[in-house]
Amino acid sequence: MTLLSPHVPELGALELLLAVARLGSVGRAAAELGVSQPAASARIKGMERQVGVALLERSPRGSRPTEAGRLVIEWARQVVEAAQALDAGIDALRERRDARLRVVASLTVAEYLMPGWLLALHEANPGTAVTLRTANSADVAAHVLAGDADLGFVEGPTTPPGLSGAVVAADRLVVVVAPGHPWARRRAPVTGSELAMTPLVLREPGSGTREVLDRALARYGGAATPRLELASSTALKAAAMTGAGPVCLSELAVVEELATRRLVSVPLEGVDLHRPLRAVWPSGQRPAGPARDLLGLTRRPSRRG
Length: 305
What we know:
GO terms for molecular function: DNA-binding transcription factor activity; transcription cis-regulatory region binding. InterPro entries: LysR_HTH_N, LysR_subst-bd, WH-like_DNA-bd_sf, WH_DNA-bd_sf. Residues 9-66 form the HTH lysR-type domain. The protein is of the alpha/beta class. It folds into two domains: 11-97, Winged helix-like DNA-binding domain superfamily/Winged helix DNA-binding domain (Arc Repressor Mutant, subunit A, Orthogonal Bundle); 100-298, D-Maltodextrin-Binding Protein, domain 2 (3-Layer(aba) Sandwich). It has twelve helices and 13 strands. The longest helix is centred in the first third of the chain and has 32 residues, at 67-98. The two termini are 63 Å apart.
């Protein structure tokens, strides 16, 4: 059901009528609005047929409103001003939407990749206010599906159900130990079956790290019951350095510790721990505004000093 009468002209016709009343000529109004004079004249005649009364008196000296036309012009002015106010309000809403970005990211992405991406976004769009939340990959997917975030970043071999995604980086999990651990001195790689039988210090279920490791060890009967389950890369590294046992985590998280020999990477055999890192958003939608801009930045080569 429409609320408008069939006698109410469209907004463009009302704007033309106001221009004719202000300029006193259909020709000058047509020039101002960028249309031909015949087209403007035809539109005025069509509007008069629609309204049912003559709106303009035409003469060689120009056009002026009839008595009925003056009434319609006054009403039309209110309609056009209201439409302009609506348009300005919509622009303000879009600017407010485009000035904020809600991101939820897995811990590895949030800690080791997101700072550089957000710095680049700030340089490109300094007015954008960003809210960054961290969660494991399963919770990231849940937040994005619930509409709590404009863009999510997950770790794991597949895109979560209900989401579309794009690979933005590649990562590899490594097993690390303290320098005094027996695995730090062995020459032969640790096999998949050995790794599966060894209680490890791991991330919690639902994390992308845990999912990748579980898939890699499924062919060996699955991972042994963890020695510890911890919820951050920082906690995992601290556990490894204190000798709690072998730890599996992202290679991105231990670059400094491996370079300074505070931790030692254990060579592996028969275990593929590579994984993609993905940006995700609800299926059927496309990232817009700052979310689209951030997604574009993740695909640019990183700048290294």
